[in-house]
Design a protein that fits this description.
Order of helices and strands: HHHHEEHEEEHE
Radius of gyration: 23 Å
Strand order of the largest sheet: 2-1-6
Strand content: 15-25%
Helix content: 25-40%
Number of strands: 6
Structural class: alpha+beta
Length: 222
């Protein structure tokens, strides 16, 4: 009888541990978090990304478009498949000591820079008409920091998009985009495609900023 009781207790404990393990696995190993989901795990992901310098402005446990974009940036920089979804492998690396943070810009610099103040749109995951996909490079490492897709709307271009700093403007000529750079002043729009960058990445020379590669341009008049 005593052995039966002890055996039952052991079975109950083993079952409890197994259920607890399954619960942890469901949260950390089996769930892929996507836009629209929420929970403590999403909060952990947001906090980790924010601490590494990724663009997380609100930590609220909601898998928003901003979180999706930050995860996609992380995946790109860490050599993962870029989906914007926090799959188990992405979660593991985000929360590990091996995660690669956003390269820290130099605290003081002069010369060319991209304005932090201009408004921008989050990257969509389907390229639509009148959008452009550009890649920003960290010039010290040569690694891609992120891709940004920006919708080009006539009213935005007429308004100037960026009110301070520098803008990147280009117009498709034949099969190759021509990229030019000029200081921004309100109402100064010379070309009909503007690539707005607003993350504050510093560039010390015009030659460095010209390494930005427009992968695909779509003429706004198409």
């Amino acid at each position: 009888m005593k052995k039966t009781i002890v055996g039952s207790i052991i079975l109950i404990l083993v079952t409890a541990v197994a259920m607890s393990t399954l619960s942890v696995l469901a949260e950390t190993d089996d769930v892929t978090y996507i836009r629209g989901m929420s929970g403590d795990r999403v909060t952990e992901i947001q906090q980790a990304l924010k601490s590494m310098g990724y663009n997380i402005t609100v930590v609220n446990g909601e898998y928003t478009e901003e979180t999706q974009w930050a995860v996609a940036s992380f995946q790109k920089l860490n050599g993962l498949e870029v989906t914007g979804n926090a799959d188990p492998e992405t979660q593991r690396i985000i929360l590990s000591v091996d995660a690669i943070p956003v390269p820290t810009p130099k605290p003081e610099y002069k010369g060319w820079y991209v304005s932090k103040e201009g408004k921008y749109r989050m990257r969509p995951f389907t390229l639509h008409k009148n959008q452009v996909n550009i890649e920003i490079i960290n010039y010290e490492t040569g690694k891609t920091v992120y891709d940004q897709w920006i919708e080009l709307i006539s009213s935005d271009i007429e308004d100037g998009l960026v009110k301070d700093g520098f803008r990147i403007a280009g117009k498709r000529l034949s099969d190759s985009p021509v990229v030019e750079f000029s200081e921004v002043s309100e109402g100064k729009i010379e070309l009909d495609i503007c690539y707005e960058l607003s993350v504050g990445t510093p560039f010390s020379t015009k030659e460095q900023i010209m390494k930005i590669t427009p992968h695909q341009t779509i003429d706004i008049n198409e």
